[in-house]
Design brief:
By secondary structure, the protein is mainly beta. The chain has a domain of 53 residues. The protein has 2 helices and 16 strands. The strands form 8 sheets. It has a two-stranded antiparallel ribbon with strand order 1-2. The chain has a two-stranded antiparallel sheet with strand order 3-4. A hairpin with a 2-residue loop joins strand 13 and strand 14. The termini are far apart. The model has no long low-confidence stretch (mean pLDDT 81).
Length: 199
């Protein structure tokens, strides 16, 4: 009778007494509640202010519902645009919020996975649409080996230098020279390219 839908007694947040859950609230604040102690409003406490939803919203079952002008998981961001407008600005061309690689805060994407110095990240762009990790021959976030060292990464795609090709510029062309340059370099003593002994 005290088991929740996952067959866990009182959601591991209380004890069963006479067929009813008694939720654990050691400090007496009543933040853990529900028929099966499934709601934990401690999830709504802002780490900085130590207030429920930063003092800018209401908490219900562990989720903050922010007041007007406030956004974020714990209502920590003040914003002068509507949540709808914020979402619209953060939507990438493929219809995903921040390309599923970042967090939308007041109409701007904060991309995940920036480098340790915070200067530049492997993921960037207005809607986090560029993922430079796709340009690495072998992914190592501290390596500068973009495009196998034979090209430049442009929003997750390699632009290969002359003489190289492949998704990551990993393949050399058989002859990096154009036909005209090749003929010029191969001119021998006779009037035939490569002295008539090659191409």
């Amino acid at each position: 009778m005290c088991k929740n839908s996952q067959d866990v007694i009182c959601s591991n947040a209380g004890t069963c007494h006479c067929g009813r859950c008694k939720c654990d609230n050691p400090d007496g604040n009543g933040l853990v509640y529900g028929k099966f102690c499934e709601c934990d409003d401690r999830e709504c406490i802002d780490d900085e202010t130590e207030e429920i939803c930063g003092g800018h919203g209401k908490c219900y079952c562990g989720n903050c519902y922010c007041g007007s002008g406030w956004h974020g998981d714990k209502c920590e961001f003040q914003c002068d645009i509507t949540p709808w407008e914020s979402k619209r600005r953060c939507t990438s061309p493929d219809g995903k919020i921040c390309s599923n690689r970042g967090t939308c805060v007041c109409g701007e994407c904060s991309c995940h996975d920036v480098d340790p110095t915070g200067d530049w990240g492997d993921i960037h762009g207005d809607t986090c649409e560029c993922d430079e990790r796709d340009c690495r021959a072998v992914y190592d976030r501290y390596s500068d080996d973009f495009c196998s060292g034979h090209g430049q990464c442009n929003c997750g795609r390699c632009d290969c230098k002359v003489g190289w090709y492949g998704k990551k510029c990993e393949h050399p062309r058989s002859c990096p020279l154009s036909a005209e340059e090749s003929i010029r370099k191969c001119q021998g003593s006779s009037d035939l390219p490569c002295s008539g002994r090659g191409k």
